[in-house]
Write a structure and sequence with these properties.
The complex is a heterodimer of chains A (256) and B (393).
Chain A lengths: L2 H8 L4 E7 L8 H10 L4 E5 L10 H12 L4 H7 L3 H4 L4 E4 L2 H7 L1 H11 L3 E3 L5 H14 L3 E2 L2 E2 L5 H10 L4 E4 L13 H12 L6 E4 L5 H8 L4 E4 L1 H6 L5 H13 L1
Parallel strand pairs in A: 1-2, 1-9, 2-3, 3-4, 4-5, 6-7, 7-8, 8-9
Chain B lengths: L9 E2 L2 E2 L8 H16 L1 H15 L5 E3 L1 H7 L2 E6 L9 H14 L4 E6 L3 H13 L2 E7 H6 L1 H9 L3 E5 L6 H14 L4 E4 L9 H9 L1 H14 L6 E5 L4 H7 L9 E9 L10 H4 L1 E5 L2 E5 L24 H9 L2 E7 H15 L5 H8 L11 E6 L7 H8 L2
Parallel strand pairs in B: 4-14, 5-6, 5-8, 6-7, 9-10, 9-14, 10-13
Antiparallel strand pairs in B: 1-2, 3-4, 11-12
Helix pairs in contact in B: 2-4, 4-5, 4-9, 5-7, 9-11, 10-11, 14-15
Classes of the chains: A alpha/beta (256), B alpha/beta (393).
Pathway (chain A): Amino-acid biosynthesis; L-tryptophan biosynthesis; L-tryptophan from chorismate: step 5/5
Keywords (chain A): Amino-acid biosynthesis, Aromatic amino acid biosynthesis, Lyase, Tryptophan biosynthesis
Subunit structure (chain A): Tetramer of two alpha and two beta chains.
């Protein structure tokens, strides 16, 4: 059982996950940010490895990805930085990025490296479910890596059940039809969608992401789910001149 | 060997649908319905009627006599440049707008590079009275002012893509993001044989009218519906796929696809994807694309905006890998010279894209008397500024 599975086994309420892009604002900030976030009360983290054409992302994460690439971030660089991860950070870590980057690195090599440095799972939004199932599931499981699938308001019940069957940590519920960085208002419609998924009695817990930006939206989302993920709002708030301070003040309004 | 799409949406190792879950319902709806819609008799009647009366099809297959004498072979030009809006692009947008109507969509989005596909999309939206939003790189908007004006005059909203390199691939990303945000009422008209399945197959079917007509015309003019060589330029590859389509299973026909070498294949300013690229995933399908070792998409270069794309459609990748098609490239200089040559030998100013295919005639050693079809995918009006600059006209 990896750290992510352990976390969800013991705790299924109010989990806070933060996304940030590796290599942004500076190339070598990756571990420092993770340490600070753990100190400030984050329950698990998603570290994005940048891609030139991130279609699922909104403008903030696109921009941070581009800057990270300009700073020289690549998967080999990231794995090098993460060598000391488990000496410094204990909370579960996910890597998030696009399939082409993983394919070029090699899927097996990617999974192996993740295990070596202590990464617990990954989110690859444009990796098709059928391909994961047919080609990669065994490899992921061999290296103790949880693959996280996304579900949207348009995903059919049949497909959600299939995703539930393939998942072994949690399901990522996309709050609305949008790219990252929108603004969630828990309208009646999205509340109905969250409840619909909750009522399906899935074997995996779910976590809500996209459009969660502050305490208010976090609290609204976690009424329905085990946790919520904040990405764009966190990245936008990072201040290069006072990185640690800006992270701490952002986390303070969430975790007090 | 099967060169066409299989049940799972693949062409050999290529194709598929590599899309985030947010796009899955949109693409799945299309996947389930596209073939039935296209095969519907009423759809076919409407499609053919518009191609005939609105686009002006069939486009002529013209035996270019002086060019034939020069090369010692019978050079036939498939005159897609004579279509309404000046290129082959309209074959696909007519098909897709009818399909969008059948699916009950009210709003159309598209990406465009130089603006040709954007204009073809805005045109059919005006024709059918549908809302139209075209994404175009900020850099391209500045470079292609006349096409931007045409789209606006046709009633389309032109939205600048300001991310990344601010060109075609970024406009494609923005269109995909729009589709993510508008999954129910919007149809995305992709302009080439790229994107997630079923787009490459759907666009190829709409463009296949090119080779369908060519076979008939060859039969009338030469007695045989087959040619020895069929040539077309390739960016994403829609005119080439339309030109090859009905010849693919006739293995005696040599299919030659010409990519843009730009300033030279190894100059760092090129769009010769099959030479410079590697297998990977771009814009929703597994194909061959120009990328760094780390899998980041590389910005291509070509004097012709229509060939300035870092990938090729998955069916092309399959034809390339299996050896069914010969994929080669032509530099900016060679293409421009070929454009001038056609103009002066035949009185036809070709689009610089099409001039790449014409330039390849220089590279073939003809024995004499072979029948050769070149797809003249578009006319050169849009390229006059480039020609003027290059030749000091």
């Amino acid at each position: 059982m990896n750290r992510l599975q352990q976390l969800f086994k013991t705790q299924q309420k109010g989990l806070l996950s933060i996304y940030y892009t590796a290599g942004y604002p500076n190339l070598n900030d990756t571990l420092k940010i993770a340490e600070t976030l753990e100190q400030c009360g984050a329950d698990f983290l998603e570290i994005g490895f940048p891609y030139s054409d991130p279609v699922a992302d909104g403008p903030v994460i696109q921009a941070s990805s581009k800057e990270a690439l300009d700073n020289g971030m690549t998967l080999p660089v990231l794995f090098e930085q993460l060598k000391e991860l488990r000496q410094k950070v204990t909370i579960p870590i996910l890597l998030m990025g696009y399939v082409n980057v993983v394919l070029q690195y090699g899927v097996k090599e990617f999974c192996k490296k993740c295990q070596e440095v202590g990464v617990d799972g990954c989110i690859i939004p444009d990796l098709p479910m059928y391909e994961y199932e047919e080609m990669y599931q065994t490899t992921f499981e061999t290296y103790g890596l949880s693959n996280i699938f996304l579900v949207t308001p348009q995903t059919s019940e049949e497909r959600i059940r299939k995703i539930d069957g393939l998942s072994n940590a949690f399901i990522y519920l996309v709050s609305s039809a949008a790219t990252t960085g929108g603004n969630l208002s828990v309208s009646e419609r999205s509340a109905a969608y969250f409840k619909r998924v909750a009522d399906m009695q899935l074997k995996n817990p779910f976590v809500i992401g996209f459009g969660i930006s502050d305490k208010e939206t976090f609290d609204a989302a976690t009424q329905y789910a085990s946790g919520a993920i904040i990405g764009s709002a966190f990245v936008k708030n990072m201040n290069k001149a006072d990185l640690e301070g800006s992270i701490k003040s952002f986390m303070k309004q969430l975790r007090g | 060997m099967n060169y066409f799409v299989d049940e799972r949406g693949y062409y050999g190792d290529f194709g598929g649908a590599y899309i985030p879950e947010m796009l899955y319902p949109n693409v799945e709806e299309l996947r389930q319905k596209y073939q039935a819609v296209i095969d519907d008799e009423q759809f076919q009647q409407e499609f053919k009627a518009l191609l005939k009366d609105y686009v002006g099809r069939p486009s002529p297959l013209y035996l270019a006599k002086r060019l034939s004498e020069k090369y010692g072979a019978n050079i036939f030009l498939k005159r897609e440049d004579l279509n309404h809006t000046g290129a082959h692009k309209i074959n696909n947008t007519i098909g897709q707008i009818l399909l969008a109507e059948k699916l009950g969509k009210k709003r159309i989005i598209a990406e465009t590079g130089a603006g040709q596909h954007g204009v073809a999309t805005a045109t059919v939206c005006a024709l059918r009275g549908l809302e139209c939003v075209v994404y175009m790189g900020e850099v391209d908007i500045k470079r292609q002012a006349p096409n931007v004006a045409r789209m606006k005059m046709l009633g389309a909203k032109v939205v600048p893509a300001t991310s990344g390199s601010k060109t075609l691939k970024d406009a494609t990303n923005e269109a995909m993001r729009d589709w993510i945000a508008n999954p129910v009422d919007t149809h995305y008209i992709i302009g080439s044989v790229v994107g997630p399945h079923p787009y490459p197959d759907m666009v190829a079917q709409f463009q296949s009218i090119i080779s369908f007509e060519t076979k008939k015309q060859l039969k009338e003019q030469t007695g045989s519906e087959l040619a020895d060589y069929v040539l077309a330029c390739v960016g994403g590859g829609s005119n080439a796929m339309g030109m090859f389509y009905h010849f693919i299973d006739d293995e005696s026909v040599k299919l030659i696809a010409i990519e843009a070498a730009g300033k030279g294949v190894s100059s760092g300013f090129s769009a010769a994807t099959t030479t410079l690229g590697k297998e990977g995933v771009l814009h929703g399908s597994r194909s061959i694309l120009m990328q760094t070792l780390d899998g980041q998409v590389v910005e291509p270069h070509s004097v012709s905006a229509g060939l300035d794309y870092p990938g090729i459609g998955p069916q092309h990748a399959h034809l390339f890998k299996t050896g069914r098609g010969l994929y080669s490239s032509i530099t900016d200089d060679e293409a421009l010279q070929a454009g001038l040559l056609l103009t002066q030998y035949e009185g036809i100013i070709p689009a610089i894209e099409s001039a790449h295919a014409l330039a390849y005639l220089e590279k073939i050693e003809f024995k004499g008397g072979e029948n050769v079809v070149v797809c003249l995918s578009g006319r050169g009006d849009k390229d006059m500024e480039t020609y003027m600059k290059y030749f000091n006209l």
